[in-house]
Amino acid sequence: MENLKYGWRSPSNIALIKYWGKTGVQIPANPSISFTLSESHTDTFLYLEEKSSKDEFSIEVLLDGRPEHAFVPKIKEFFGRIQNDLPFLKEYHFRIETHNSFPHSSGIASSASGMSALALCLAEHQLGDPDQDDFLRLASHLSRLGSGSACRSLYGGLVSWGRTPVIPSGSDDHGTPYSGKVHPLFWDFRDTVLLIDKGVKRVSSTAGHGLMHGHPFAENRFSFAHEHLEKLLKTLENGDLEGFGAIVEREALMLHALMMSSSPYFLLMRPETVAVIENIWSFRKDTGLPLYFTLDAGANVHLLYPEGVEQTVLDFVKTSLSTYCKEGAYICDRVGSGPINLK
Ligand code: PMV
């Protein structure tokens, strides 16, 4: 019996311009761009054992060393989508051993880091050599079919996804490392994640993307995403922190406004989310320091700021913002350099 093992650490990412709405099989309705994170990541080891019957997928998942049956259906669905790319999927029994660096119930989505870590293991088996040019592109393409935004986790720094005239190399099929000029202020940006709601998501992102079909503001939203992306790239080049913050905060609030105005509608902020946002705005007014926020499809707040103001911001988090967090919890993250081979 052949018993093969692959291991990858893959990071999460935080979108600055949000992907919200898709067509076909995970084709984004608008382009997005994110910072790859450093500390929030998933380690996945994949064991392949040849099996005699080649009729169906055979998958076993262990999370932190314990069987996690709830993950199997989602991974089977993922395998179904990628079997044209990876003809070997029915030939093996797959044991997936996975561990997240962030707590399971923290409200931090593990889909981007988890799907990309698994995709990297599968791409390595398919191509053999992870140093090949097209290795990360294949891993990103596979990740996209697992969970759209996961395709941006395959590279460090800023990564875009989706066709747009302002990033000619961009593609709907996979993420692309951003190669435009970026001011050094953004190379080492911080993301402190305030954990406000640790519960299960009220609306899955699949359901959320679905709500953009027939949404009364859909077309306007998609054109705003293009406009925001173009403006954001200029702020990244010029080191215009104020312009950057204005676009990123508007994107976050627009994402929530879309959910509040869909049918059915959802309110994913908690009172603490609103209190934190108001505190950030007062802090900025009082100190003049560049502290901004973004949100995912949930109640947690991501604080974005340059390295130079880290100590002042962390003092503010400790003395003030952490009182709005569940059990005072927050995660200190920063822009990271992409996946690592664990072999
Ligand atoms: O990749 P999904 O299907 O989990 O969607 C992610 C959507 C947002 O996190 C809200 C935005 C984004 O671009 O990451």
Main sheet properties: 8 strands, mixed
| Overall pLDDT confidence | 96
Task: Extract low-pLDDT stretches.
Answer: none
Number of helices: 8
**Percentage of residues in helical conformation:** 25-40%
Write the layout of secondary structure elements.
Layout: E1 3-17, E2 22-23, E3 27-28, E4 32-50, E5 58-63, E6 66-67, H1 72-82, E7 92-100, H2 111-127, H3 135-146, E8 158-161, E9 175-177, E10 190-194, H4 205-210, H5 218-238, H6 241-260, H7 271-287, E11 292-295, E12 301-305, H8 310-319, E13 330-334, E14 340-341
Parallel strand pairs: 5-7
Antiparallel strand pairs: 1-4, 1-14, 2-3, 4-7, 4-8, 5-6, 8-9, 10-12, 10-13, 11-12
Helix pairs in contact: 2-3, 5-6
Bound molecules: (3R)-3-hydroxy-3-methyl-5-(phosphonooxy)pentanoic acid.
(3R)-3-hydroxy-3-methyl-5-(phosphonooxy)pentanoic acid binds next to loops.
Report what the structure shows:
With 343 residues, the protein is α+β, with helices and mostly antiparallel strands. The protein is built from eight helices and 14 strands. The strands form three sheets. Strands 1, 4, 5, 6, 7, 8, 9 and 14 form an eight-stranded mixed sheet that branches. Strands 11-12-10-13 form a four-stranded antiparallel sheet. The protein has a two-stranded antiparallel sheet with strand order 2-3. A hairpin with a 3-residue loop joins strand 2 (22-23) and strand 3 (27-28). Helix 2 crosses helix 3 (135-146) and helix 5 (218-238) packs antiparallel against helix 6. The radius of gyration is 20 Å and the shape is globular. The model has no long low-confidence stretch (mean pLDDT 96). The structure holds (3R)-3-hydroxy-3-methyl-5-(phosphonooxy)pentanoic acid.
